[in-house]
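Chain A, query sequence.
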Amino acid sequence: MHSRESNKNYVSANFVSKPKNRSSSTTVANPPPANPPASAPTGGLVPHREVDFAELEDGTLVEMIEDPNNSANSLFAIYSNRTVHYAATVDCGDRVLVPLPRGQGIFKHVRLARGAQPCATVALFGGIATLILACVDMSMSDASLIAAFVMSTWFIESLPVAPYLALVGLPRSGKTTLLEVLNQVCRQPLLTADITSAAFYEVYEKFSPTLLVDETLTARNRRELFHLLKTGTTRGSVILRKGHSLKAFGPKVISCTELPNDAALNSRCVIIPMQETNRTKSRETD
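Chain A, predicted structure.
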């Protein structure tokens, strides 16, 4: 079983934790202990359910993060009553929530937060925009728009529509650099140069990444990719394949040298025009 089976994944819980703000993908504050306690025993007959995110009936948010002490492991950051706790599992009475294994197929290539810290929304927004401007030659208005997109990826469960970005520009315009920056600050980013339909649906069956596709127009099956990108803009919509219902809802960024010849896809994108630049120096993104 997987999370995100409905607009809000509500489950009852016997364990109530205490967090802070949503996790940050680049900063570790108040990191989990070396051996974080499990909130429920892992043995017995209680079924386990792998999730990357869940909202419990009492409003507690359970978010999967990377164990900062062992990048091969996953943990939960649990937000409740304006505080954060970390745990290896969460007891929900008739089931135990466990994080997705970090070494599981495509998921090993996804960047995860490594902790949580309090941060004012305005300061965070401004910091993201400043980082973008330090790395890519663009206008402040475009950097602010992209920063808003980044913020939205961390609250995608609360949005009825998943935002798309289309980065359009010639070589040396900074598209790849910007994707690398987004790979640092978006929630659960997956950066790829190409993706098959089978891999696409496998990704969204397990979790909801921020999909970053570099050089879209060089993809092996452009038409199929564009069709896939059009399917996941509206929450609740499903794709039917051989008797199975599949989901693809989530934020996405596509990078290309020119807009696709696809009016339906273009209408779903926030287009960011990028210009060729001679700028060679940028601030480190790590």
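Residues 1-29 have pLDDT under 50 and may be disordered. The chain has two domains: 10-109, 121-273.
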